[in-house]
Amino acid sequence: MAKITASVYTSHVPAIGAALDQGKDQEPYWQPLFKGYKFSQQWLKDNTPDVIFLVYNDHATAFSLDMIPTFAIGTAAEYAPADEGWGPRPVPTVIGHPELAAHIAHSVIQDDFDLTIVNKMAVDHGLTVPLSLMCGQPDAWPCPVIPFAVNVVQYPVPSGRRCFMLGQAIRKAVESYDQPLKVQIWGTGGMSHQLQGPRAGLINKAWDNAFLDRLIADPEGLSQVPHIDYVREAGSEGIELVMWLIARGAMADVNPGAAPGAAGGPAPKVAHRFYHVPASNTAVGHLILENT
Question: CATH code at 278?
Answer without folding.
Answer: 3.40.830.10
